[in-house]
Amino acid sequence: MALVSTTTVASSSSYHCDHPLRPAAARSWCRPRSRGGGRLAVLARARGQLTTTPKEEAAPAASAAGERGRYSYEVDSLIDRLSNLAPRGSIARCLETAKHRLTLQDFAAVYREFSRRGDWQRSVRLFKYMQRQPWCRPDEHIHAIVIGVLGRQGPALLDKCLEVFQDLPADARTALSYTSLIAAYARNALHDDARALLDQMKAQGVAPTAATYNTVLAACARAADPPVPFDMLLGLFAEMRHDPSPAVRPDLTTYNTLLAAAAVRSLSDQSEMLLRTMLEAGIMPDTASYRYIVDAFANAGDLSRVAELFREMADTGHTPDPSAYLGLMEAHTRIGATAEAVAVLRQMQADGCAPTAATYRVLLDQYGKQGRFDGVRELFREMRTAVPPDTATYNVLFNVFGDGGFFKEVVELFHDMLRTGIEPDMETCEGVLAACGQGGLHEDAREVLDYITKEGMVPTAKAYTGLIEALGHAAMYEEAYVAFNMMTEIGSLPTIETYNSLANVFAKGGLFREAESVFSRMTNSAGIQKSKDSYDALIEAYCQGSQLDDAVKAYMEMRKSRFNPDERSLEGVLNAYCIAGVIDESKEQFEEIRSNMTVPSIIAYCMMLSLYARNDRWADAYDLLEEMKANRASNTHQVIASMIKGEYDDSSNWQMVEYVLDSSNLEGCDYSLRFFNSLLDALWWFGQKARAARVLDHAVSYGLFPELSRDTKLVWSLDVHRMSVGGALVAVSVWLNKLYARLKREKDLPQLASVVVLRGEMEKSTITRGLPISKVVYSFLNDTLSASFHYPKWNKGRVICLKSQLKKLQAAIDSTNGAAVPGFVHMTDSRLPYPGSKVYTREPQVENGSAHSTAESLVEEEKESELLAL
């Protein structure tokens, strides 16, 4: 006979233990592993012919079958007939053809299936039918099962449980039926009734079993209003220990129930007593036991005692298993006690208990949270000599290094994982793609996605989000949009994160119309409402696209939608005010940032510095620089302020600047792009051209602005559409000097030189000439090279210089007769102006860019207009 409902205290998730690693042959990056019809399923999904994989199709069927695969044909048939029976249908007819072939064990199987479904109504109808039939009259086992079915439905059916119990003759009642009824009351938190039934059971001369006591203990331990005193639980425990019957001796379930109750009550002394008692009784703790012991001492604030207990156990030949040490390490890491967690690992090794991969994972994750990446690398090297890393370990490493900004290291670890024959899962690939997205590693992201499809897996929305983000950081707008459409074709529906990522791709380049289209599709087609990140993307798109009123409107709409702005949101509005040149509103926004954040970021400070410089507010600018230098809470602010003032130009101090720039790169491309744009803008308007050029070199070396320079036989191109105005002028200046050097030494000139100032739909609009970056870059080019550049008719987002003009420039250079000229632009650091100086009265403006176009260039433009279709 099987006991019904002998559960103890509600169990929580146990610590995970490692399974033995299966040897796997090393395989290359691209060689696919056979997975049956997996790859065909992916292809079929892309054609819209399949919506689930074979495994996904089989899972619901297996779930619906439940345990019925083990039943006999008669049992399966009866279950089907009863399931399809109308509410007033005849059960007798269902059983008419098979009543002589069914046993009570078969009926027990039917009740178990109904119990699994929670179908108590059919259970009661069948039970009442069986009561009236002599050939299938229910025995105690059937009564116990039906009581269990009814007891799971809540307190309302406890009276029916009692009726079923009383239907059983008194002389036929054993511990089985009593335990089932006690469990029904216990499950509904009626511990007093459960205890009374135990006393009644003893009074009737029915000997309880360990399962009976465990059920009562579990009910009393779970009682919360009011809680049962722990001494009462120990009283039941004492009854079990002193009962002469071996069937009543406490078992592992008994001890775990008491240990769980002691943990909830923070009773560390009682937990230690129970541990010693169970060891004396020859019962070894399991994973749950150790977890409850650790929880009891953690709640009591005495975790150090647990390590002593484990050492005593090892000394007496009862070495705890790895899950015990793992639970103790996790308890230490939850309170940030990393040194103590490492000490547990060393004690574990000293006690002769081999660490598992899960043991190392806890410490790797903890080191990562504390930013101790060298410690992560060292511990991982140690782990590889002790236990083979598994997929879950690599997943932890990907999260740790991805969050820490070591994006290329994540890709290297993924290659290492494949070389060692460890099979990545989808979580692995998602983690790698997320790192590639943050770091702008679009080539690596594509390789990972190719690996996923070749392995027969279907890329998830999270995987595609990483790819889209990576492509966006390389300004590969068309490729990002193709990837977005591809994911919908294979059945991976975009999430809010995917839409926000695609919008951010366009926002960085000021493609505000494309960003608007993304969110229109998200809300109208997908039915997904904007989040705070959605509004942040719109604000950035409008700012970079010089639609400043729209940026402020998007911010106000975000506030009306009851989203709390964070630092990025507030900086986005500050950027709009600073670009517009409105000082009072900018100062007010800066003060709001100061009130919401502990310290405004470097980005916010640089925006204000640039604004003050462009408006000749030098006294305000110097006050802000001194405020940055006086900031003792942030060494970054001090270094940047000193660098702008020219105090860190020597090699030793410049290393501090490089360290700050390196640290910004660890934040990911999204932050780095905004950081370098604001810093370059401030340096340019402060007249620090040489320092700005050095900073730009660092940004390019980090992989930012990969679209910046592109040279072919037909075109020499510079792309500044993702840069701030000051940053664009720095890049144009550096590019013009490179152009000077090339014109001086090269004879084969391209058909044209081009500076891209805008991308996307705005390339077709003539209003682009009036946007800040277009006006400033155009004016600077022609002021420097005297009407050599003009806007072409076929693209309003570019300023070009045709081959004929390049030849004139080359001739002019040759006519200097070798004079020592560094280039077209003198890249030197100007002396900082005195307060009150008038350097910039307003930003350069050009009423009509075409005024600089010569008749000759317009004629040649018609012939060569298709050369820049790239």
UniProtKB/TrEMBL annotation:
Belongs to the PPR family. P subfamily. Residues 840-870 are annotated as: Disordered. It comes from the Eukaryota. Keywords: Repeat, Transit peptide. NCBIfam families: PPR. This is Smr domain-containing protein. PPR repeats lie at residues 174-208, 251-285, 286-320, 321-355, 356-386, 390-424, 425-459, 460-494, 495-525, 531-565, 601-635. Pfam families: PPR, PPR_2, PPR_long. Residues 718-807 form the Smr domain. The lineage of its organism: Eukaryota, Viridiplantae, Streptophyta, Embryophyta, Tracheophyta. SMART domains: SMR (SM00463). The keyword Calcium does not apply.
